[in-house]
Design a protein that fits this description.
The complex is a heterodimer. By secondary structure, chain A is mainly beta. Helix content of chain A is 14%, strand content 37%. Chain B starts with a helix and ends with a strand.
């Protein structure tokens, strides 16, 4: 790629994201369902943005960060698609991405489109992928289509999980 | 078709049949407990056996003397907790470094079959034994009846990966029979197609015949084998029909060999795990 083209793309991206003003935040609401099981462990969850060429940008990873000697990392591979789509190349814990697991309930993830990795993404169609894997439980993967620069008309958008995930919604929240 | 050509075809047919039968009788495999791993220095435990039914150890335990493990940098990795049972051997390895590990047993050299003066079949080295090429002259009677000498190579291997897959363990040694993967063997998914290349002494093993058999044979009536042939470049493609463990076996034969051998053969086997999408 030659220099003028790069400059053009970057300036396009910059103008695109500056329209997503500070007063609005892209928010992903992830519901972890209450399950009637004898042995319950909070699921490991990964959220990432995947381009058509399968390049992944990490958004969030919830795993057991508290276990001694990083033992909680042993089951990260069970978030199978995520592991393949970049998880296995990450140096964990990853600041701003990894955090503790969450139990049943509704959990918000703020997607900061001004974060360097997201800001650099080329305009186009992406998939926001949410994958959950639970010890002595199952695995579920949900995809939400997303267009960059952010197509606000497509929002809010939600999908319902059937086993390990509940309702997943992506919306713009206005900050007051 | 003239008589001599017909004879060739028949001989080739018999040869192929006998090779296939031999392969059926000895499926040597090493089965890892996991192939894709995360975390700090995890362990993988392996079963190693020779059995017809995949992957159930019900015949003979594999001899672990020749089994070697190689780390992501090609470094030697120690086999831990080795044990040989009646039907299977077991061992562990610890994955201290990120990347792909290869666990393999390989060998090769001159092999001879003949009949003694009483018409009794003889072979050198004897079954389950190893021998040096230098012993050939003293061990094999050069004027024996039906003497057939081959240079035969074998390799049995499997792969496991901690973190991101790496490629260093696949660097060809150009010795014996080898498999060089274009698709990483710890990055296999149901419905996807993998490409592998077979080499014999560093050259494409063109025309090698390959059989891929899924695990769980005890619970079905057919082998369900996928039959493939390596192309001019020694390449072949497998589309994995379902997630699970698979046994791959390849047989190669030609006559590009120096005397006293008149044929060169290669036998390759590997175990793979295919994950669901």
């Amino acid at each position: 790629m030659n220099t003028p083209k790069v400059l053009l793309i970057f300036s396009t991206i910059f103008s695109v994201f500056s329209t997503c003003a500070n007063s609005e935040t892209l928010t992903l609401d992830v519901q972890i369902p209450q399950l009637k099981v004898a042995e319950y462990h909070s699921p490991y969850v990964a959220v990432w943005l995947e381009s058509k060429s399968r390049k992944s940008t990490q958004i969030a990873v919830w795993y057991d960060v508290k276990m001694a000697d990083n033992e909680g990392q042993e089951w990260l591979k069970d978030i199978r698609q995520w592991w393949r789509r970049g998880g296995r190349s990450l140096d964990l814990p990853y600041d701003g991405i990894t955090s503790a697991t969450r139990g049943p309930g509704s959990h918000q993830i703020t997607i900061d489109l001004n974060r360097a990795e997201l800001k650099e993404l080329k305009p186009g169609d992406y998939k926001l992928r949410i994958e959950a894997a639970r010890e002595v439980g199952g695995r579920e993967l949900i995809e939400i289509p997303l267009t960059l620069p952010l197509d606000k008309t497509a929002l809010p958008i939600s999908k319902n999980g059937t086993s390990e995930l509940g309702k997943i919604s992506l919306s713009l929240q206005t900050n007051n | 078709m003239n008589t001599s050509n017909l004879l060739k075809v028949i001989t080739a047919g018999i040869l192929t049949a006998s090779v296939a039968m031999q392969a059926q009788a000895h499926r040597a495999w090493m089965l890892p407990s996991s192939t894709v791993l995360s975390g700090d220095a995890p362990y993988v435990t392996f079963d190693a056996a020779i059995s017809n039914t995949l992957f159930y150890p019900d015949h003979v335990a594999m001899n672990l003397t020749g089994v070697k493990a190689y780390g992501p940098e090609g470094n030697s990795v120690e086999l831990l907790n080795t044990a040989k049972g009646k039907y299977r051997s077991t061992f562990d390895i610890q994955l201290n470094d990120e990347g792909t590990y290869k666990i393999a047993t390989s060998g090769g050299g001159l092999r001879a079959r003949w009949e003694d003066e009483n018409g009794k079949r003889k072979m050198w080295p004897r079954r389950g034994q190893t021998a040096q090429d230098s012993e050939f002259d003293s061990a094999v009677p050069q004027n024996a009846k039906k003497l057939r000498v081959s240079r035969s190579y074998r390799r049995v291997e499997t792969f496991v990966t901690l973190g991101a897959p790496s490629d260093k363990v696949f660097a060809p040694t150009n010795q014996g029979i080898e498999m060089i993967p274009q698709t990483h063997p710890n990055d296999l998914y149901a419905g996807e197609t993998a490409t592998f290349t077979l080499l014999i002494e560093g050259e494409p093993a063109k025309g090698a015949t390959i059989e891929v058999i899924p695990d769980g044979m005890r619970y079905r009536n057919q082998q369900n084998e996928i039959k493939l042939t390596a192309n001019e470049k020694g390449e072949f493609e497998i589309t994995w029909p379902a997630a699970g463990r698979y046994f791959l076996e390849a047989e190669y034969e030609d006559n590009k060999v120096a005397l006293p051998a008149t044929k060169r053969t290669g036998s390759y086997a590997a175990t793979f795990e295919v994950l669901p999408m």
